[in-house]
Amino acid sequence: MSPSAPHGTVLLLEDEALIAVALQDDLEEAGYGVAGPFMACADALSWLEVHQPDFAVLDTVLKDGPCKEVALRLTSLGVPLLVYSGLAEDMNALPELASATWVEKPATTKVLLQALAGLRHGATVPA
What we know:
The chain is an alpha/beta fold. The protein has helices at about 15-30, 40-50, 70-75, 90-95, 110-120; strands at about 10-15, 35-40, 55-60, 60, 65, 80-85, 100-105.
């Protein structure tokens, strides 16, 4: 962790530009470094070839499809996942994300940061 990001680096995957920018700002203001936001799974996977985040916040589906491969890669690296999605039905449709903490869109910044803090402290927060 760098001094400018005392809480670690968050890999951010979100394909809606306004949401992505707002999330990035909220995370940075809360003391996280942000990798991304990535709007395509392929771009995030390329970044993961040479980097490893401390946490990941991802939507279930990006511009190039479901985040299944990204989730598998992050899980293999032991990176805690927070899914931020408006598609609650994906909780059952994407088993690769079953162990992740889920926050349903829309949610307040406070709710999202509390869920991320839970990951920092090793707890999962029920959806």
